[in-house]
Amino acid sequence: MDAAEADALVEPLTTLVSAFSHRHPGVSVAIKAAFTSRDVIDMVRTGAVELGLLASAGPVPHKEVVSHALGRQRFVLMVPADRPFADRTGVECQELAGQRLIVGQPGTGMRAYVDALREQGIEFTVAAETEHRVSLMPLVLAGVGLAVVTDSWRDVARRLGARVLDIDPETTLDIALVSRRGILSPAAAAFVTAATSAAISAANG
Predict the structure, then answer these.
(1) CA gyration radius for the chain?
(2) Between the N and C ends of the chain, which has fewer C-beta atoms within 10 Å?
(3) Bridge-partner residues for 104, per DSSP?
(4) What pLDDT is stored for residue 57 in this prediction?
(5) Strand 51-56 relative to strand 66-79: parallel, antiparallel, unpaired?
(6) Of all helices (H) and strands (E), which one includes residue 193?
(7) Structure letter (DSSP) for residue 62
(8) From CA 163, how far away is CA 160, in angstroms rounded?
(9) Mean pLDDT over residues 69-88, rounded?
(10) What is the pLDDT of residues 1-49, one digit of tens each?
(11) CA-closest candidate to residue 4, choices 195, 197, 204
């Protein structure tokens, strides 16, 4: 059983499960959602799950779990198709001043990013705060506000009619698969192998 933080639920979770399923079609993967990186680590540490997928702006506490680096994802801005920043492919972070933003709960990567903007003196209005990432896209498309998300949202956002703009300067989250210390079950060990192989293949193009 795996736990996945919402920042990583779109990607690389889909790619990792696909890679594992192709190697081991007879093994079922059970996925549990977790709201924050801390939640993921606690679920793995306590044995609620064997593996966890998380996105973190800082180092994973290695004394609690074993961490397998899978890459990085940059922050991007998800906006409605018709406004604002029409015909733009990117924005400076300072341009978020005065905008209405949809933010995640404290403890998430996207919330840490927008909180850091305020610390830099970039003021914006919080249009909505949500624990549920599935609500982000409908809220953006309905014009409630803009959302800072990770690059993993890019393809699905475009397919559903939103636009995704790069935010400069580039800021990233580290994506990691974490496992409990000790001997893993054969299925969990095989998932780690498949995940790290998929990450290496992606990094090499």
Answers:
(1) 17
(2) C
(3) 130
(4) 78
(5) unpaired
(6) helix 186-203
(7) T
(8) 9
(9) 89
(10) 566 665 555 678 888 999 899 999 999 999 988 888 888 999 999 999 9
(11) 195
Q: Is the pLDDT of residue 178 over 70?
A: yes
| Separation of alpha carbons 65 and 204, rounded Å | 27
Sorted by where each starts, the structural domains of the chain and their CATH numbers stand as 2-72+174-203 (3.40.190.10), 73-172 (3.40.190.10)
Residue 96 confidence class, pLDDT cut points 50, 70, 90:
very high
Distances (CA, A) of 152 to 71, 77, 78, 122: 12, 12, 11, 25
Question: CB atoms < 10 A from the CB of 50, how many?
Answer: 21
**Candidate from 48-62, 82-96, 150-164 with smallest mean pLDDT:** 48-62
Give φ, ψ of 92 to 5 degrees: -85, 145
Backbone φ, ψ for residue 126 (5° rounding): -85, 105
Cis peptide bond prior to 106, omega within 30° of 0? no
Quote the longest CA-to-CA distance of the chain. 53
Cα separation of 204 and 197, whole Å?
A: 11
